[in-house]
Amino acid sequence: MKKLTLGLLVIAFLISCKPQPEQQAENTSQDYWSFENRDDQFTGGIKMIPIQTEKGEFKVWTKRVGNNPTKKVLLLHGGPGMTHEAFSCFDGYFPQEEIEYIYYDQLGSYHSDQPDDLSLWTTERFVEEVEQVRQALGLDSSNFYLLGQSWGGILAMEYALKYQDNMKGLIISNMMSSVPEYNAYAQEVLGPQMDPEVYKEIKAMEDAEDFTNPRYGELLMNHYYTEHVLRLPMEEWPEAVMRTLNHANNQIYVHMQGYSEFGITGDATLKEWDVKDRLKELSVPTLVIGAQYDTMDPKHMEWMAGEVQNGRYLYCPNGSHLSQYDDQKNYFSGVIDFVNDVDSGSF
């Protein structure tokens, strides 16, 4: 009887020492939205982060949404020279999953400093800018996910190839790993899918470098953008997307991307960019997102997911280049699953 009593006392003692569910530290919804003890409470999450360059110090705009100690996603917008506004729809999906995310306008973009110096617009300098932003925001391998879309995907790949040890996860959204292969896809696959007369007229204006002709923009809007950039009638394009287009820095865009929408051509600095042979160097968990109607070849993106050491492919069957808008169900469920799987260690 004494042995039984002693055993019960031991069990009771062990139970009393075990943390109960209400005592365990958890990230609650209240914690997620709290600005308490944050250094950006005064500005509601906005920070102007100083960036050191060979041409001096400049500031870039960032805004954090939410708090999560292990899931923080830094968003790299497209362009180059566009803005974070194209990611506005993330507000509709990340908060209920309690994923912290950071909007960010790269140097030269609308909400950040806009120096007038072409020498600043290189992938190498942008990579160092992202690294300085990471440090300023306290992101590290325990929490730092980097999501880059379009040009942001180029920047994300370049950053990961140099700094993947600082990362927890990489998301490459709607960007191939080779501009020459992107050019071939645009000119040999997408262009010929258009009405032959329309494509002929567009190519004639491109050959004549008549890019400022209103007719050029009209044909692209009505026959290309609504098929391969965002699959909605122009009058239904989200206000945030129109805002990022209106806020674009054309100096950066033309210098790096060029005038043509059928690949990167002319004297654009990204014309020969290609890291497809280096993807095998990436060991960080990686999600690659492709879409059926994208300006980028979805088969190439699927191939990329198999080239990296620890990859997953997310296919958006209804999406185009901005598949975060025209295939939201597949896009966000896939991104959220990836972040949660990496965070839980099940990826």
From TrEMBL:
GO CC annotation: membrane
GO biological process annotations for this chain's record?
proteolysis
Q: Where is the active site?
A: 150, 294, 321
InterPro entries for this protein: AB_hydrolase_1, AB_hydrolase_fold, AB_hydrolase_sf, Peptidase_S33, Pro_imino_pep
Give yes or no: UniProt keyword Hydrolase.
yes
Source domain of life is: Bacteria
Keyword entries, A-Z: Hydrolase
Q: Specify the AB hydrolase-1 domain's residue ranges.
A: 73-327
* MF terms (GO), sorted A to Z: peptidase activity
Q: Does the keyword Hydrolase apply?
A: yes
Q: Which family does it belong to?
A: Belongs to the peptidase S33 family.
Q: What is this protein called?
A: Proline iminopeptidase-family hydrolase
